[in-house]
Structures are given as C-alpha cells and as structure tokens.
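Lab notebook, bench 4. The sequencing result for the construct came back, and we need a structural model before the next group meeting so we can plan mutations. Quick request posted to the team channel:

Model the 3D structure of this chain.
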Amino acid sequence: MTEITLKDSPCARILFRAANWVGDAIMTTPVLRAVRKNFPQAQITVLAKPWVIPVYEHSPYVDHIMVYDNNGRHKKGLGTLSLAADIRQHRFDLAVLMQNAFEAALITWLGGVRERLGYNTDARGLLLNRAVKMEPKLKQGHLIDYYTAILKGAGLLTDGRRLELFLSEEDRQTARNVLEQIGLDPSGPIIGINPGATGGTAKRWFPERFAKIAGRLSKKLNTKILIFGGPADRKLGEKICQAVPGCCINIAGQTTLGQAFALIETCRLFITNDSGLMHAAAALNINQVAIIGSTNFKATSPANENSVIIRVPVPCSPCMKPECPIDHRCMDLITTDMVYEEALEMLNV
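Done. Here's the predicted structure in token form:
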C-alpha cells in the first residue's frame, strides 16, 4: 500500500527529511507547504543538515527543526544509530523523505516511524512501507515536479510549484545595515552577481567575464555591484574586484545564509551561475539572469517568471561533471554582450 493512512490531528507528528543542498532544499518548499495543507493541525519537524536550516527555520509550516549533526553526534557510522534514537524519542507517525539516499530510509525505519514515504530508489523498498514508484518521465523534468510527485504517489494533495523563502526581520535589518555601511541606497538599482557554484568549476562562468559585466553595469547605472557567495568564494570575489577597481563590493563569505537571502531580496537584478542562491532569488521573485552550461536546465532552471536563462546548446551539455574535461565550451560560448543585453532589458534601461 502506498496511500498515507495518517489522519490530521494535533497529535499527529510528521518528520520532513530535507534535501542536503541549499538549491534542492528550496525546491522542496512547495512540498513542505503541501504537507501542511494536508495536515494543518499536525506537528511538523524538519530534519536538516546545518547548512540548509536557514531555508526552513522561519517557515510558518514548520513547528520544530531537528539538526542532523553530521560532523558530531550523527556522524556516519555509530552516529546513524544515534540519529535513529533521537528520531525514536519523538514517536513520529509519518516521515516524508525528500532525500533519496538509502540512509534516509534506514534512519526512519530504525527510528520507528510508522509510515515512511519516499521513492523506491537505492534499494529502499523494504524500508519504506509507503514507497512511491519512480516514473522515468520524472527524471526528465524539473526537480520541483520530481519532489511533489512523492505526495501525489501517496494520495496526498499538492499545492502548486511556487517556491518560498521566509526571512527574519533580524536578517532584513542586517541587510539594511550592510547597505548603509557600504553606501548603497536601498531605493537605488542594487545589482548582485554570484560568480561561484558548489561542486566544481564546470558550472561557473568565467570570473573575468563576471568582472566585465560588473564593470559595465557599474558604469551604466552609477552604482557598485555586490558580489555574493560563501566563504569558499571569497578569493573569487577578490579577483573580480581587482579586475575592475572601484566597481564591486565583495560580501562573499561575510554573511550568514539568511543574511545573504535578505540582501538578495534587496536586489533589482541578480546575475548568477546555477547555484543555491539562484534558487533563492527565484523563491524571492527577484529579476535574474541565470547562466547555465554543464547542468540540466530542464531540471534545475529558476522557477520564477522573471528569470532569464542564458545557455548555448552544445553536444556535450549537460555533462553534469564537476570539472570540464575539454574546453568549457558551454560557458565559453556565452559572451559578456549576451549577459549585458539581457541585464539591461530586465532593468528596463
């Protein structure tokens, strides 16, 4: 049997196992909203690794956050048993698994969750008593549809494809303070660029081209360009700043993820590689130009109407490789003029 038998009540306890990457986690937000729609009275707990918690922590659909402490108490090995023990203490009635790994099913089975819902992939069928068959067509579509189909397969209602991010007033105030400190007027044309991307360099447009775009937009709009990213992108941001002196402000690695979300919310335009922050901009409904090469744009394109994808089809794309083994042609064929013209069109200047 696949259909969920849990009835909505204040006593119902649901565990939502989050995806492990920021972009994927954001693409699961329509599923989380739909779980709340199906069970408005239930207690919903999100189990997430630390770096994706900001995606969920201010959501009105979430009652509790359980941290998956993968570098401490829940470290792989005996930590899996510790996590299962922590889950067992809560006596969950239903687990909704966004993560497809075998371990996700194992910990909920060991944790005594009565109904365990997810795709029947990775040899998980015996551990999931509410296993949804993976239809081949789902692998060819967008990840949002891939995630929401889990609920459809269990006879639950869905609630559209709209992405959502809920920001704290504290993070918004920090964003306002940052803009004031660096001398950017929130009412002006704040432009953000995101030159990094996790998982290797194949997903990244060239930093020298980001620098040229930043320089041209800075001169055209008489403003400085914000460079976004995590700690690993700090040096990349510095390289871009040095290439176009006086045009950029590098905030990569200088904010929390929640603060980065709040700063993206202030942008009039966001120019980005395929990344978690691209999906954040989509969830915040920010105008953006998304540069996509090695990844599958059909699966991970930004899901808001005011996003434009720039890509040049080449025979080897999408390769999904972390590093390009040849000449990075999928990115090389994307010129600065292409991106600049789309940027100006989105800005209506």
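The longest strand covers residues 43-48.
Will bring this to the meeting.
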